Amino acid sequence: MTVANGFVRGAARDLAERERGTSGAVLNADGEIVGHMRGIARQRRNRVSGVLRQWVNREGQFAACSRQTYANGELRAKLNRSRR
């Protein structure tokens, strides 16, 4: 799945203290839905925020996983694409 110049739209909801669930649609540059995502955002006791998201394409196949952390004003992210 290629999403160049696209975006993700969705919603977040509280699951527990310092934890939020996210879900939404992945759109390409033309606004067409090319998949969906879901994830969990957490804030650890040391105040470091972390997000883990999974992207699934329109055919229901796992496409990628993203892991992000935010601390001290710095965002670090890594995208792991499926090798299927």
Uncertain runs: none
- The overall pLDDT average reads 78
Proportion in β-strands: over 45%
What is the number of helices?
Answer: 0
Percentage of residues assigned to helices: under 10%
Nearest-angstrom radius of gyration? 14 Å
Strand ordering within the main sheet? 1-2-3-4-5-6
- Categorize the overall geometry: globular
Say how many strands there are.
Answer: 6
* SSE sequence, one letter per element: EEEEEE
Structural class: mainly beta
Our count of domains comes out at: 1
Furnish the topology, listing elements before pairings:
Elements: E1 7-16, E2 19-27, E3 33-43, E4 49-57, E5 62-71, E6 74-81
A few lines on this structure:
By secondary structure, the protein is mainly β. The chain has one domain.
Can you walk through the features of this model?
The structure is a single chain. The protein has 84 residues and is mainly β. It has one domain (14-81). Helix content is 0%, strand content 68%. It has strands at residues 7-16, 19-27, 33-43, 49-57, 62-71, 74-81. Strands 1-2-3-4-5-6 form a six-stranded antiparallel β-sheet, with no helix packed on it. It is globular.
Task: Output the keywords.
mainly beta, single chain, six-stranded antiparallel beta sheet, 6 strands, about 80 residues
